[in-house]
Amino acid sequence: MLTDRQLFILQVLIDDYILHVEPVGSRTISKREDVSFSPATIRNELADLEELGFIEKTHTSSGRIPSEKGYRFYVDNLLPKTPLLREDLERLQSMFTDKVEETEKLFDESARILSELTNYTAVILGPQAYDMTLKHLQIVPITGNMAVAIFITNTGHVENRHIMLPDAVEPGDLEKLVNILNERLSGVPLVELDSRLKSEISSVLHSHVRSFENMQDALSKMLRWSKKDKLFFGGKTNILSQPEFKDVEKVRAVLEMLETKDLIRHLVAEPSDGITVKIGRENQLEAAHNCSIINASYSVHGKHLGSISLIGPTRMDYKRVIMMLDMLSSEISARLTNRFSQW
Amino acid sequence: MLTDRQLFILQVLIDDYILHVEPVGSRTISKREDVSFSPATIRNELADLEELGFIEKTHTSSGRIPSEKGYRFYVDNLLPKTPLLREDLERLQSMFTDKVEETEKLFDESARILSELTNYTAVILGPQAYDMTLKHLQIVPITGNMAVAIFITNTGHVENRHIMLPDAVEPGDLEKLVNILNERLSGVPLVELDSRLKSEISSVLHSHVRSFENMQDALSKMLRWSKKDKLFFGGKTNILSQPEFKDVEKVRAVLEMLETKDLIRHLVAEPSDGITVKIGRENQLEAAHNCSIINASYSVHGKHLGSISLIGPTRMDYKRVIMMLDMLSSEISARLTNRFSQW
DNA sequence: TATTAGCACTCATTTGAAGCGAGTGCTAAA
DNA sequence: TTTAGCACTCGCTTCAAATGAGTGCTAATA
Question: pTM of this prediction?
Answer without folding.
Answer: 0.87
